[in-house]
User: Fold these one by one.
Assistant:
Number 1:
Amino acid sequence: MKVTYYLEVTSSWSFWAEPMWAELKRRYAGRAEFDWQIAKMQPDDFPVSNHQYDWFLRRSSMIMKAPFVANSAYYDYPIPGGYPAASAVAVAARDLGATGDEVRLALSSAAYRDGKKIGRMEVALEIAAKASGLDPARLRARAESPEVAAHMEATTKEYFSHQISQRPAFVLTDEIGDKAVFAGVMSIEPLAATIDAMLADTQAYADFAAKHGIPPAA
């Protein structure tokens, strides 16, 4: 089966979801395929000031029982078309071979722990290059390419096709055609229970086919 994680690097809820994502990958290693994709935040999704953002971040930090309050200093006021630089750099790094979560985690941690302004391309590039070892010029060229922009538009459209609006979101699919969608869920228990159920169903189908063969023709 496959688990697809839809996120925005500059989403604070995506930042708080990362430990759960890491635990899912650890728990189901070798039993499920894991992938992440960008679901770009829209201009109206952003707070109107750092003062307002601080309120939201205090709330999310409290709900997550976090040992620190996320930092809003990274945040510049929204720009037309959204705030895509950090996500574009994360996608570019993956395209260039940094296929793990390290670049994405380095960017979000730099923002929410250290207040680094990752919405600015030059800042995001510096952090990503250090985390990945990739050449900054090559990374910039890819991050600013039409291909990366088109990819993020496509995955954002894909995200909205699931009729959801909250990030993080997780879409679970299996080879027998089942699908489960979670949006805004921050605890591992419901996802793990669903993955277990889907894996069990898929195995039951396989066991039946091994004993009884393929379905008879109509």
Note: The chain has one domain: 2-212.
Number 2:
Amino acid sequence: MDRPTPGSPTAVSPVPIALVTGGAKRVGRAIVLELARAGHDIAIHHRSSPGEAETLAAEVLALGRRAAVFRADLTVAAEVAALFHAVDEAFGRLDVLVNCAAVFRRTPVQTLTEADFDFHVGANLKAPYLCCLEAAPRMQAAGCGRIVNITDVAAERPFKSHVPYCVSKAGLVMLTRSLAKALAPAITVNAVSPGTVLFRDDESQEDRRRVIARIPQGRIGTPEDIARTVRFLVESPHVTGVILAVDGGRSLD
């Protein structure tokens, strides 16, 4: 992401700034640390994890990078606008947006409600959409930017007891592809599509064995697997509109 100042080829570029939504825990946390190691200063977003976010910010600082923590409900447009304004004030620029914040809840079809739809589509599709709308003009003004969305294999291979979740992630795939066309050439827009990364606490050992048995690589993924792929996309200026599966081959089944 570093680039020379126009008219001064040997000048050192400003440190790139990355905003990671849902960055305080799990996969988001791994992405924050990977981008910090890659030389980015980090804006860490959370909705309800202030302690974890502050602890992570301290880890980023220990790596020699700047970090700041921001809270927002990303389903509310006014809070998204305030978030990006706060990032502007703290860092003065935005080079990378990683839309990692998401929700996942079991929703059997026999008991589906409107609230189930709003819960998943709001957090998993509307929120990234609003963030992209805020990020795009900032990146276009700078002449360069990277947006990486975190989708899911469920966008292409639906789960019968998670219909609203699957719909929300399928929408995020199309948002990624549409914006890749609309925002080219200055901004690349890509997505990482994880398979199983972290088991839920309520999943039995037998359920876990069944999942692993369907993965050619013989294991579930790790947050670091996803983070390294995000870094690859951030550092790849000629890759856009790609949905990159990181699922150990699960989607081949």
Note: Helices lie at 26-37, 50-62, 77-91, 114-142, 163-182, 205-213, 223-234.
Number 3:
Amino acid sequence: MEELRKTIANLIKTNKEQTDYILSHFRTVQLGKDESFVDLNDKCDEVAFIKNGIIRFYYYNKRDEETTCYFAFPNEFITSIKSFNFKTESREVLKCITDAELLVIKRTDIEKLYHEIPATQKITRKIYERLSINLQKRIALLQINSAEERYQYILNHQSELLRSVPLQYLASFLGVTPQHLSRLRKSKATA
């Protein structure tokens, strides 16, 4: 809970009692590799803080293939934004690619905290801002850059993906086949 405490302190100004009260609304959830925090068509009513593990966000395309749009790492918040906000079924899947420990809070508790400690509204806004920025970066990366440039961007700015994400998920994230990603990796290794 210490990392979550630090994250909250960086987002809003609260005293120790208020922070303890906010933290009391989170519960620990352990998920194994390949378990989902949110499945397709779930109605997501929770937000999670990743204490340990890596979560992959993906959709199914028209050919029923998985398309990875985002990876979340420790000390990040996750949720299915549209499902959470509009109380609709999720079109995305949030699945663990490693064992994960999450600190989870329900929508009802978040709404309660909004009334009791209004500053908590800023936490949710910051979560949405960060998720939106990350997704916007991904869209721009795919729309503007060639496969080689996308791979180079990952090498330069998100090298943790290369160390911790299986090849097929990274290929999906980059919008290439696993075979093309292997060729990109080989060409960069020999360059």
Note: The domain at 2-117 is CATH 2.60.120.10 (Jelly Rolls).
